[in-house]
Design goal:
Layout: E1 8-14, H1 22-33, E2 37-43, H2 49-59, E3 63-66, E4 80-81, H3 83-88, E5 93-97, E6 100-104, H4 107-119, E7 127-131, H5 135-145, E8 152-157, H6 160-174, E9 177-182, H7 185-194, E10 197-200, E11 226-229, H8 238-245, E12 250-251, H9 254-269, H10 275-286
Parallel strand pairs: 1-2, 1-3, 4-6, 7-8, 7-10, 8-9, 10-11, 11-12
Antiparallel strand pairs: 3-5, 5-6
The structure holds NADP nicotinamide-adenine-dinucleotide phosphate.
């Protein structure tokens, strides 16, 4: 990579940030395209979020990705928030246009594209399930609830009050039936019985606790129930293995990561990046 005085800077802020895959992914796209950008990771502590976002204006940094734990905090420091980011209640991308900062949420696009392209489902099932009620669950529930063909999304969470609050918000925004439920075995048996797509947005199974799974009983998995696990580290989660063992299709979160990154890149640069190159750059980190 040839960083020059003219190179426009892109980056990601988070805490911690040193293990982020985003610099690998975006710099691989920049190299492949031969364009004059570079992408770096900035460690930003929670008490410095405002200064970091204002720094975009001062340093004329073109764009940032925002990761845990700053996706909410940055919202009060930008000038405008896109409709999607407002609906989700989180910003993962900031675009600086001559000092005017817009907050976007590209996780919504990322999960839809991953399910369409990689899972191969273009008409989403009427009845979908989301496991978890954190930030990723809000993006996924909004994405699913915004599809015309989806009639109901059930949100199952360990802390049921969070599922209730998410469901109330998303029901208002999407106009669909969003049903909050507890994450326990009897509920899993009932809810999985009616669904065709489950999206895991809990952090269960994520590195380093890779033996863990949010699935309570593999007997609840039918071969026609699709799993999309948003966890991307490891590439194959314990939950994916459990679904596959029941003959059910299961896909990991890497493609969502790549597509949300690709959408951010396009917002900043107006260029559609090569997603296969971006994906290979992340896979290379696991080699
Ligand atoms: N592929 C992608 O591009 C992408 C994008 C965004 C996020 N993600 C993934 O999504 C996951 C969640 O991220 P997030 O930002 O939504 O995090 P978050 O806001 O902290 O939410 C974490 C969720 O996991 C649940 N959870 C945590 N430990 C649990 C346990 N032991 N048993 C049952 N549930 C548990 C939490 O339940 P409680 O409410 O009960 O605590 C909550 O619903 C992460 O693995 C992240 O890598 C992937």
């Amino acid at each position: 990579m040839n960083i020059k005085a003219s190179s426009q800077v892109l980056g990601v802020i988070g805490d911690p940030i040193a293990h982020s895959f985003s610099p690998d992914m975006h710099n691989a796209a920049i190299d492949a395209l031969g364009v004059d950008f570079c992408y770096v990771a900035f460690h930003v502590s929670p008490d410095r979020v405002g200064e970091a976002v204002n720094g975009l204006r001062g340093l004329e940094i073109l764009g940032l990705n925002v990761t845990i734990p700053h996706k909410l905090a940055v919202m009060e420091h930008v000038d405008r928030i896109s409709e999607e980011a407002l609906a989700v209640g989180a910003v993962n991308t900031i675009h600086n246009e001559d000092g005017n900062l817009t907050g976007h949420n590209t996780d919504v696009y990322g999960v839809v594209k991953a399910i369409e392209r990689v899972v191969g489902v273009t008409t989403f099932p009427e009845n979908c399930v989301v496991l978890g009620a954190g930030g990723a669950a809000r993006a996924v529930t909004y994405a699913l609830g915004s599809r015309d063909e989806v009639k109901q999304v059930t949100v199952m969470n360990r802390t049921v009050e969070r599922a209730e609050s998410l469901a109330a918000d998303m029901e208002k925004i999407t106009g669909k039936r969003i049903v909050p439920e507890a994450l326990d075995a009897p509920t899993e048996a009932r809810v999985f019985g009616d669904a065709r797509l489950v999206v895991n947005t809990t952090s269960v199974g994520m590195h380093p606790k890779t033996d863990a799974s949010p699935l309570l009983d593999p007997a609840h998995v039918r071969p026609d129930l699709i799993l999309y696990d948003t966890v991307f580290n490891p590439l194959e989660t314990q939950m994916m293995r459990e679904f596959k063992a029941q003959g059910a299709p299961a896909f990991g979160g890497l493609d969502m990561l790549v597509f949300q990154g690709a959408r951010s890149f396009e917002i900043w640069t107006g260029i559609e990046p090569p997603t296969d190159v971006m994906k290979q750059a992340v896979v290379g980190r696991f080699a």
